[in-house]
Amino acid sequence: MPYKKKIWCPHPSHSRCTRSGSKPTHPEARRPINATQAEIVNRQIRCNSNWSSVILKEGDRVCLRCYEALPNLLDDSFDLEAMDVQFEDEMEKIDSPCLEESILAKEAAKDKLNAVFQLFNIEKIRDHRRFKKIREQIDSVYRHLKHLCDILEENDSDGVHEINPDSIRIDESNELLHGMRELFQQSTYEEQVRLMTIAPDNWGRIAIAQWFGASDHQARQSIILRRDRGVLAFPEYTRGNKFLDEDTIQSVVQFYLQDGVSRVSSNSKDILKIKNELVPVRFMEMSIREALRKFYDDHPTIRVGKSSFYSLKPHHVKISCPHETCMCQTHENMSLLLQAFNNYVKTKILLNAQFTKITASNLIDLIVCTGPVDDCFLGDCEKCNDITPSSVLGRQLDSSDEDDKCSWSLWKLVDKKIDLHQIRGTIISLLNEIDESWPAFLAHSYFNREQRNFINELSIKSSPLSYAVVQIDFAENYTFLRQREVQAAHWNNQQATLFTIHIKIGSEHKNMVIISDYMRHDTAFVFCAQRLIIDYLRKHYPEVKKVNYLSDGAPAHFKNHFNIINLQHHQHDFNIFASWTFSASGHGKGPCDGIGGVVKSNASRSILLFNTVISCAEDFFILLRNLTRMQQSQVKRMNHQSMFAT
User: Fold this and answer.
1) Strand 282-284 to strand 317-318: parallel, antiparallel, or no bridges (unpaired)?
2) Per-residue pLDDT tens for 209-258?
3) Per-residue model confidence (pLDDT) at position 355
4) Which range of residues forms the domain containing residue 188?
5) Domain stops at, among 407, 427, 449
6) 290 within 8 A of 365, measured Cβ to Cβ
7) Which of 402, 253, 263 shows the shortest CA–CA distance to 331?
8) Domain identity same for 333 and 268
9) Which among 598, 626, 597 is positioned nearest to 610, based on CA atoms?
10) Same-domain check for residues 479 and 617
11) Which domain of life, per UniProt (predicted)?
C-alpha cells in the first residue's frame, strides 16, 4: 500500500506541536477554506506579533479546531467591516510609542551583542528570537574572556571547568543554591560537615563558613575531611568506638566456629533453634583471652578489642562447658598439673597483683624458640632442648618454698582401668611430674596442631572437579523413647545405630546420616557406608576424582588393618581413588557430633510432643525424613539387617 503524505494545519498557533514520532501532536489539515475565510485568518495572524508570518489562500486546508474558530459567514451578525476596524485598531497598537521603544531597545541590544561577537569572530545575531543560540554565543564569549584572564594570572587554562554545562539560567542556579542552604540548616552536625566538603577547592575556612552560615570549626573540619577522604566523605570521631567492617566481623565469627577453638556438642539436649533452624551448641575449648591471642596470631593485620571480640561470639557458642567426656588424656593431665601449680602460687602471693595464670599454650611459648620449627617440638633443637618447665615455673618460687606441700590430680591406668587419682607431695615433686610429662605433651600438641592445619587446608582446597572431603563417625546409639511408658518397659528398650557423615566439596556442605539396626560398630559397617557415600557423590558430583576420608583413630572400626586393606582396594571396589586422614588421639570431635545431636533432638521432640511411636530403625528413618525433609538415598541389606541412609 503506497504511503500517503500527511497535510498539516498551516496555522501558526500550532508552532509548538510535534509532527514526528509515533503520536504527533500537530493536527492534520482536513477542512478547506474559501477566500473570505483565508482573509480572516491572515488578518488574525498579522494582528499577533508572536506568530510567524503565514499567508493562507483560497483552497488551503486547516484543522477542525481552527475551522470551527472562524466566524460563520452565513450569520447575519457577521460584519466584515467591523473586523477591518478591529484590525486597524490592532495596527494602531503596534504603532504605539511603547512598542516602538521596545523594538528600538531590542535592536540596540542586538547591535551591541553583534559588536562584541565580531571581536571574537563569532557569528552575528540574525534572528533575535533564537534565544538558545544567543545564550550559547554568550557562553563562548565568556570562555574567551576567562581564557584571557587566566593568561594574565598565569593560571593553567586546562583546568577551566565547562561553562554552564547543564544550560540553566542564573535564577535557576540561585534557586538550587538556596535549596542547598536550606538542606544545610536542617541537617545534623555531622551531615553539615559532610555537605561543606562540596565547596570549591580555592575557598578557605572563612569563605566556607560565611557562605554556609556555619562555624569556623566546622569549616576547618570539612577542609581536613575533604583533603584526607574526598568530597562527601562521612566524618569519623574518635570519642566513641569505631565501627568494625563486615570482613572483620565475619573473620571473628568464623574463628569462633573453628575446630580447636570450640567443639560441637554431641548431646541431643544441646540444640538451639535459631531462625527456625536447629543448630548444635558449641563449647569453647579455651578462654576468651587465649582465643583472642590465637586470633591475633592467625590474623596479624586485624585488630579488635577484647570486649568487641567477646560481643561477636555467636549465640550458640558457649563459654561454660557442662560435663565433658572423651577428652584427650595427655592434654588433661598437663592441664591438671598446671592448675595445681597455679593454685599453689595464687595462695602464696595472694596479695601480689603481678600474678598471671600459666596455661599449656603459654608454657609452650615460653619454652620453645621464638620462631619454632619441627625440632623444637620433637626435642632435637639445640637452643631450647635444655629448657625445662620447672626452670620456667621455678622463677615464681623462692628457695624456701621447695618443701611446701601441695596436691594435684592425674588420670592413670591402674589394673587396666583409667581413673582419676589424687596425689599429695611437695612443690618440687609437682614440678618433676610436669618435667616428666612435658616431652610427650609437647610432641602430642605439635602433632595435633599440624594435623588440624592439614585438615583445614584439605577442606579449603576441595572442589567439585578435584576431590571431596568426607568426615565420618559413629554417634552414640539412639534409644527409642516412648511417651507414657510403663515401668517394666524400662528394661526392654530398642536402639538404632547412627553413622554421621559430613561432606565438604568446595564451598558446599552436605550432611548425611545412616540409620541401621545393625548394632555392631565394625569395619563391615564402614564399608557399606562407603558404598552409600560413593553412590551419593556419583549422583550429585560426577566429576569428583578422589575421596579423602577423615575420622578419629578408633581401632574398632577405623584405624585397623581391615580398614586399611579396604582402602587399598578402594579404586577396584568403587572405581575412584581414596585416601584416609586420622585426627590426633583424643581430638576427633567435629561436625559429625553436631549432626548426631540434631537428629536425636528432632526425634525426641516429636516423640514427646506428638506421641509418635517408633518401634524399629525404619520407623526412625521415616520420622526423620518427614521432619527434616531428608531424602532416602539407598536401602541396603547386610547380614539380614537393614540400613537406611538419609
Assistant:
1) parallel
2) 999 989 999 999 999 988 888 888 888 765 556 677 888 898 899 889 88
3) 64
4) 170-229
5) 449
6) no
7) 263
8) no
9) 626
10) yes
11) Eukaryota
Confidence at residue 5, expressed as pLDDT on a 0 to 100 scale: 73
Q: Label residue 544 exposed, middle or buried (CB < 10 Å: 0-12, 13-18, 19+).
A: buried
Same domain, yes or no, for 485 and 632? yes
- Please tell me whether residues 539 and 619 are part of one structural domain: yes
Q: What would the pLDDT profile of 85-117 be if each residue is shown by its tens digit?
A: 555 555 455 445 555 677 778 888 888 888 888
The CATH number of the domain holding residue 549 is 3.30.420
- Is the pLDDT reported for residue 365 higher than 80? yes
C-alpha cell at 137: 554565543
Cα separation of 558 and 566, whole Å? 11
Q: How many domains does the chain have?
A: 6
Q: What is the pLDDT of residues 467-487, one digit of tens each?
A: 999 999 998 888 887 777 777
261: left (phi over 0), alpha (psi -120 to 50) or beta: alpha
Write down the residue that cell numbers 618460687 correspond to. 397
Give the three-class secondary structure for 466: coil
Report pTM: 0.54
Element of type H or E holding 318 = strand 317-318
C-alpha cell at 213: 552560615
pLDDT at 632 over 70: no
pLDDT value at residue 160: 47
**Grid cell at residue 191:** 551531615
Instruction: Say whether both 131 and 190 belong to one domain.
Output: no
- Last residue of a domain, which of 94, 109, 137? 94
How far is residue 221 CA from its own chain's centroid?
31
In a domain, 3, yes or no: no
The C-alpha cell at 377 is 617440638
Q: What is the DSSP string of 12-76?
A: GGGTTS--SSSS--SPBP-EE--HHHHHHHHHHHHH-TTS------TT-EE-HHHHHHSPPTTST
Contact present, 120 and 137 (Cβ < 8 Å): no
